[in-house]
Amino acid sequence: MQQPVAGDRSTATPWLYPSQASLAAGSYFRHRIIEDPEWSLITVPHLTELCLQHIVHNFEKNPILDCLLPEHKRKVLDRLSTGLPLAVTANLISDEDYWKRCCTQRWQLCDISNYGGSWKRMFFECHLENILKCFIPNMTDPNQVLELIPLCKEYVRKLKVDQFLPPVKVDQKEERDDLSDTGSDFGLSEVSTHHYDLGVLITALPHLEELHLTYGVKDCGMNFEWNLFNFTYQDCCNLAVAVKMCHNLKVFKLTRSNVDDAKTRLLVRNLLDHPCLVELNLSHNLIRDKGAQAVGKLINQSRLEILDLYNNQIGHLGAQALAQALAENSTLTSLNLRLNCVEDKGGKAIGRALLTNNTLKSIHLGSNNLSEPTATLFSQVLTQNTTLMSINLSCNHLGPDGGKQLLDGLADNKTLTDFDLRLAEVGKESEYLIHQIVWANRDAVRMRSLQHPPEEGGSAAPTKPL
């Protein structure tokens, strides 16, 4: 008898007993159902789900969000791509969870405590900062910044740009050809080093309150050149005009940018009578006495509360100008002049100003080549001044006698809670006894704060100066 081939329906089936025939027929049909490629246990999605999928897939061309029900809106936001154009999402999506996804997928470290607890604010501030850090004058399209302004202007409160790239250097051969054509190289080096002008951007940000800038290049490695850190006078002019027009600015920091006396005076002229500025930081620059004299004028023609001028080249003349302003000032609470060279003439002038000033709470004069005459005057300050809470005279040469005089002046002082005398050569015994008095004052302040906690919204104690 001929044997049938499996799966070959053209082969004749032999005669079987009825029971065998029914068994073979049942096996055949079960085999057909399992191998059917069109058969599935998945049910057809609801029409609502299909609509939400369509909205998500076509959101860039047809953004639909506000008219959805809350539960449907939540599903759409959770599925939207973080790579959608900002022109679509910036002013339409306010959901913090969406902007959190945008931030965490782009940056490894995300601390929204520095951005008022807002993920959306963090995204736009960091995004704008990255564009400015990578902007190359004469090469990068300025529209990259201009087109972003209407999208981010409502959310940017602070800008921290620690790098400004200079224009790309022209090829030396081409440069020589250009010089041979013009017959002069006048102004070439100055023009070739101007950085991006922040004027248009800053004046278009109505809520900008803090501006932290450093004109230099990070991680330049073996490509280091001094002109990479050249903050030109034209750069300073552009920045000064822009800051003057930023009426809501409260904090302005321009550090590590080779700001000299001329640029300092230019900045000060545009900051006089600024309506909101309360903190100015010009540290790690090249400011000398004339620049400090200009800042002294600013102290009494502004609302400054915090002034940082550490690591400059200010001498006793500049310190005397600052002291004269300090004696008449009623707003400044913190002054940091460490790493300058005010010497005893400048230190004594500041001490005499503190005998009458009743608003300054923190003074830092570390590493200023001070000696015993300054310590003698500061012992009087400790006796009469009831406002100062923090004094730093570290890394000076006050000597053992200076330490004893400071100890005598501190005997009846109940307000000083921080007194740094490290490496001041005051003697171990005097330093120990001074710290005992300071710690007692600190404990007394802490106990008073526990007994009478400050009201909500009250001012906090000043932090220890850097």
List keywords for this structure.
elongated, 466 residues, single chain, nine-stranded parallel beta sheet, alpha/beta
Helix-strand layout with pairing:
Blueprint: H1 18-34, H2 47-57, H3 70-79, H4 86-89, H5 96-106, H6 119-133, H7 143-146, H8 149-152, E1 158-161, H9 172-182, H10 188-191, H11 199-203, E2 210-213, H12 233-245, E3 251-254, H13 261-271, E4 279-281, H14 289-299, E5 306-308, H15 316-328, E6 334-336, H16 343-354, E7 362-364, H17 372-384, E8 390-392, H18 399-410, E9 418-420, H19 428-451
Parallel strand pairs: 1-2, 2-3, 3-4, 4-5, 5-6, 6-7, 7-8, 8-9
What does this structure look like?
By secondary structure, the protein is an alpha/beta fold. The chain contains 19 helices and 9 strands. It has a 9-stranded parallel sheet. Helix 12 packs parallel to helix 13, helix 13 packs parallel to helix 14 and helix 16 runs parallel beside helix 17. The longest helix has 24 residues. The radius of gyration is 35 Å and the shape is elongated. It starts with 17 loop residues before the first helix and ends in a 15-residue tail after the last helix. The C terminus is likely disordered.
